[in-house]
Specification:
By secondary structure, this protein is of the alpha+beta class. The protein is built from eleven helices and 39 strands. Strands 32-33-35-34-36-37-38-39 form an eight-stranded mixed beta sheet, with helices on both faces. Strands 19, 20, 21, 22 and 23 form a five-stranded antiparallel beta sheet that branches. A four-stranded antiparallel beta sheet has the order 1-2-3-4, with no helix packed on it. Strand 36, helix 5 and strand 37 form a beta-alpha-beta unit. Helix 1 packs across helix 11 and helix 4 crosses helix 5. The radius of gyration is 25 Å and the shape is globular. Keywords: Hydrolase, Protease, Serine protease, Signal. It comes from Dyella soli.
C-alpha cells in the first residue's frame, strides 16, 4: 500500500527529535529507554547469605527483552551473572532449602534440540554457585508457575492442559478454537477454549508429573508449607467460575489422589492473582497470610487488606484493617509479625505489621515506590524499590536503613534527570487532590512551557514517586509533565477510588482539568500549548477529556476505547462490565455514559494519535480503531499505529523506542510551532 503523504513529515520530525537528543548526551533520550535494566524477583537463601534475582535488558540482536539470573551476597559482594542465554529467558528463581540449588523457569531448548521453535517455560535446576542447568519438567503446554518442596525432592507446578492429545503429532495448522466458556480470552494466555490450568506434583528425579486438581476450573499461586505436609493454592469454583471474582485459598496434601480442602470462605476475592502475591505460610505451618478484597461488585475499587487464617480452624482475621492496599506479605522468623508493602498516596513502603495488635511500622521512608521484598529464615530482609531518579534496585534493610546491593543502572548517574515535585490542589467540588509535576531540564522560572498531561491506567491505580522513563524523555525535550491522581486513583482509600464507579470520565475528568488549571495558574504551563495522553484506562480517560474539553492541542491515546458497547465481548472484561455497568442491552444509560467519547465524537477537535497492540485482549485494537475512524471521518488530524504481535504491554525494544519517538513527534508537531520557546 502507498503511504499517506503526511508520513514523510512525521519521519522528518522523528529525525529532528533524534538529532536534538544526540546534541546533548547528558539528557535522557529515546535511545536510553532500552538501556534501563529491570531488576526483579529477589529471593533470599534460607541462611540469608545470598540473594538471587532477575535482570531484564533489551537484546538488540533479537530485538527482544532478555531476562537472566544474577546472584549477590547479602554483604553486597560477589555480584555475578549466573545465566547467559541470549536466545531465552530465566525467571521465578527459588532456592532449595539446603542452599545448594536454584530452581527457575526458562524457555530455553535442550542442547541440540532445534525441532520446535514454539518453546514453553519449563522448570530447570542449577548449582547455586553457577554451572550447567538441567531441565526438570517436560509439560506439553509448559509451566506457568511452580514452588519447590521443603525436602527438595518434588515441586508443585501450575500448567495448562495439553493442547494436543499425549503422543499425537502436532498438526500442520492449529486446531479450531472451540469454547463454551463465559470468559474465552485472556491477554496473557490468549484464546482460552476449554483448556484449564491445574496443580501438578512433579518428582524432580524422574520428571514424572501427576495432576492433583483435575476439573473445569483453574489453579494458581502454589505455596508449599514449611513442614511439607500441604500445598496451598488459589482457585475459583462454583457452577461457572468465569462469572465471579470469588477466589479462595485451598490446601491439598502432596500425594496422588489426595482430597483438597477449601480454606477461605469470604464472599469476595481471597488473593486475586492480579496482585501476584502467593499465600504466605507462617514458619510453623499453622497460619497463612494473604490478601482479601471487598465483595465482588467492587472489583478492584476496594483496598486489599492483609488477612491471616488459621489452617486448622479456618478462622480468618484482619490484623491491621486500614483503608489502604497491602501486597507481598512475608512472615518474620518468629511468627510474631508480617512484612508487607503498604500503599499510600504517591508512595509504597515496606512495613512491619505486628501480630496480634496490628501496629504498622514503616521500614522504608520518603518519596519512593517499593515493588517487592523477601525475608530469610534468620530474619534478613531485602527490598526492591526506587524513586523519581532511580529505577527499582535491590537493598538490604538494616535498622530502618537501606544498603544498596545492585547497581545495574549506574550509567544514569551521568544523566541530567528532571526532578519531581508534589502539588496539592482542590477539585471543583473541594476534593483534595495530589499531582506530580516534572519541570523541563534547564527550567527557567517565570517562563511558560508546553505541558503534557499524563493520565494513568487502572482506573484504580496511581502515579507514584518512581522512575518514569517517558517523563524524563519529555523533560529533556523541553516539556513540563503533569500527572494528576484524580478520583478513582488508589492510595487514598475506598471512597476516593469508588467515586468514579460506573461513572468513568465525569469526576476524574474534572480533577484532571483542575490540575491543568493549577499549573497554568502557577505560571508554568502554557495554556496555548497543552497536550494529554495515556495508555489503557489512561487512554480511555484521554478520550473522555478531549470529548468534553477542547483546550488540548494534541492527544495520544494508547490501548484505549471510547465505545464500551464495542468492547463488551471483544475484550476480556465482560464479567467486570456486568458487575459494574450491567449488560449493554439492559443498562443503556450506563453504557451511554461509558461510551461518551464515541457517541460525542463530533465534539472532539484535538488532533489525536491512536495506538494499540495487535494481539491485545485486554483493550483490543477495536477501541483505537473506532475512535480513529470517528476523527478521520470528521477531518480531525489523526493517525493510527498498530504494533504487530504485541499484547497490552509492549515488549519489543524497537517498538518501545518507536512509540516514544512518535509521541515526541506528535506533540512537537502541535505544541511547538515554529518560533515557539523553548
Amino acid at each position: 500500500m502507498k503511504r499517506p503523504v503526511r508520513l514523510p513529515l512525521m519521519l522528518l520530525a522523528l529525525l529532528c527529535c533524534s538529532a536534538a537528543a544526540h546534541a546533548d548526551d547528558t539528557r535522557f533520550s529515546t535511545a536510553d529507554l532500552n538501556r534501563v535494566a529491570e531488576v526483579g524477583e529477589p529471593a533470599l537463601s534460607r541462611d540469608g547469605n545470598l540473594i538471587v534475582y532477575t535482570v531484564t535488558t533489551a537484546n538488540p540482536d533479537r530485538d527482544e527483552p532478555q531476562s537472566d539470573l544474577w546472584r549477590v551476597r547479602y554483604d553486597g559482594s560477589g555480584r555475578v551473572q549466573l545465566t547467559h542465554t541470549p536466545d531465552s529467558n530465566e525467571t521465578r528463581p527459588q532456592w532449595s532449602t539446603d542452599g545448594r540449588l536454584i530452581a527457575f523457569l526458562s524457555d530455553r531448548k535442550l542442547d541440540g534440540d532445534a525441532s520446535d521453535d514454539d518453546t514453553h517455560n519449563q522448570v530447570w535446576l542449577m548449582p547455586s554457585d553457577g554451572g550447567e542447568a538441567r531441565r526438570v519438567t517436560d509439560m506439553p503446554a509448559g509451566v506457568e508457575d511452580f514452588v519447590l518442596s521443603p525436602d527438595g525432592r518434588q515441586l508443585a507446578a501450575i500448567a495448562f492442559d495439553p493442547e494436543y492429545p499425549p503422543g499425537s503429532k502436532k498438526p500442520k495448522h492449529p486446531l479450531p478454537i472451540v469454547t463454551d466458556r463465559f470468559q474465552f480470552k485472556d491477554d496473557d494466555s490468549g484464546w482460552l477454549g476449554n483448556r484449564h490450568k491445574h496443580l501438578y506434583l512433579v518428582d524432580i528425579a524422574s520428571g514424572k508429573a501427576t495432576v492433583l486438581t483435575p476439573g473445569v476450573h483453574d489453579e494458581q499461586l502454589p505455596a508449599w508449607s514449611p513442614d511439607g505436609k500441604l500445598i496451598a493454592y488459589v482457585t475459583k469454583r462454583g457452577a461457572d467460575p468465569d462469572r465471579h471474582l470469588n477466589y479462595d485459598i485451598y490446601v491439598i496434601a502432596p500425594r496422588a489422589g489426595a482430597s483438597e480442602r477449601q480454606l477461605t470462605t469470604f464472599p469476595g476475592s481471597d488473593l486475586d492473582p492480579y496482585w501476584e502475591t502467593r499465600p504466605a505460610w507462617s514458619p510453623d505451618s499453622k497460619r497463612i497470610a494473604y490478601l482479601q478484597s471487598g465483595e465482588d461488585k467492587w472489583i478492584y475499587y476496594a483496598p486489599w487488606q492483609l488477612a491471616i487464617i488459621d489452617v486448622d480452624s479456618g478462622k480468618a482475621t484482619l490484623p491491621a484493617p486500614i483503608d489502604r492496599c497491602f501486597t507481598k506479605p512475608r512472615w518474620s522468623p518468629d511468627g510474631h509479625s508480617v512484612y508487607a508493602l503498604v500503599e499510600q498516596a504517591e508512595v509504597t513502603h515496606l512495613s512491619r505489621i505486628d501480630l496480634p495488635g496490628g501496629k504498622i511500622t514503616a521500614l522504608t521512608h520518603g518519596d519512593r515506590f517499593d515493588a517487592d521484598l523477601d525475608v530469610s529464615a534468620n530474619g534478613r530482609i531485602v527490598v526492591l524499590g526506587g524513586d523519581d531518579l532511580h529505577p527499582p534496585r535491590l537493598s538490604a534493610v538494616e535498622q530502618d536503613q537501606l544498603r544498596p546491593l545492585d547497581d545495574h543502572n549506574a550509567w544514569l548517574d551521568a544523566k541530567r534527570l528532571a526532578t519531581t515535585e508534589t502539588l496539592r490542589l482542590q477539585g471543583p467540588d473541594g476534593t483534595a487532590l495530589d499531582a506530580l509535576l516534572v519541570k523541563p531540564v534547564d527550567y527557567v522560572p517565570g517562563r511558560r512551557y508546553p505541558t503534557i498531561v499524563r493520565v494513568h491506567g487502572g482506573p484504580v491505580y496511581q502515579f507514584s514517586r518512581e522512575f518514569m522513563p517517558d517523563w524524563q524523555v519529555y523533560a529533556a525535550h523541553g516539556y513540563a509533565v503533569l500527572a494528576v491522581n484524580p478520583r478513582g486513583s488508589s492510595g487514598r482509600g475506598f471512597e476516593f477510588a469508588r467515586a468514579i464507579y460506573a461513572d468513568w470520565g465525569n469526576k476524574d475528568t474534572q480533577d484532571v482539568l483542575a490540575g491543568v488549571d493549577h499549573v497554568v495558574s502557577l505560571g508554568i504551563a502554557d495554556p496555548a500549548r497543552l497536550g494529554i495522553g495515556g495508555w489503557s484506562y489512561g487512554a480511555i480517560l484521554t478520550d473522555e477529556v478531549i470529548s468534553r474539553d477542547t483546550r488540548f492541542k494534541a492527544a495520544i491515546a494508547g490501548a484505549g476505547s471510547g465505545n464500551m458497547y464495542g468492547m463488551y465481548g471483544d475484550d476480556e472484561y465482560a464479567r467486570e462490565y456486568e458487575l459494574e455497568l450491567g449488560t449493554p442491552w439492559a443498562h443503556r444509560d450506563a453504557y451511554d455514559r461509558a461510551s461518551y467519547p464515541f457517541l460525542h465524537a463530533g465534539q472532539i477537535k484535538t488532533p489525536t494519535l491512536f495506538q494499540c497492540g495487535e494481539r491485545d485482549f485486554n483493550v483490543p485494537c477495536i477501541g483505537a480503531e473506532q475512535m480513529y475512524q470517528a476523527l478521520r471521518s470528521q477531518g480531525v488530524p489523526t493517525e493510527l499505529v498498530m504494533y504487530p504481535g504485541q499484547h497490552h504491554g509492549l515488549t519489543v525494544p524497537s517498538y518501545l523506542r518507536d512509540r516514544m519517538e512518535r509521541n515526541l513527534a506528535w506533540y512537537d508537531r502541535f505544541l511547538k510551532p515554529a518560533g515557539a520557546h523553548p
